[in-house]
Automatic annotation (TrEMBL):
Keywords for this protein: Membrane, Transmembrane, Transmembrane helix
Segments crossing the lipid bilayer: 60-81
Protein name: Transmembrane protein
Amino acid sequence: MIRLGLLLLILPPLLMLGLYFWELGDVRACQLDGGHWDYAAGVCRDSAQAFTPWVERAPLIVNGGMLASVAGLIVCMIGLARRRQG
């Protein structure tokens, strides 16, 4: 039970960080080429684009990841409580 909780607690934030930094690499490459990143479309453009936060572009990933982490924390706490009792 503790292992499942730790997986749920740690894996979603690592996945979100990986996806975030993957996109950040594309943004930096676009800026180095002299372009402007269009966050809504995910492409490099010649004109300046408005910034769109990641939580608006991928709400299921962000909210689902945070929910899974909280669920993992609760499962870990339950697993630790059961281990201590028995």
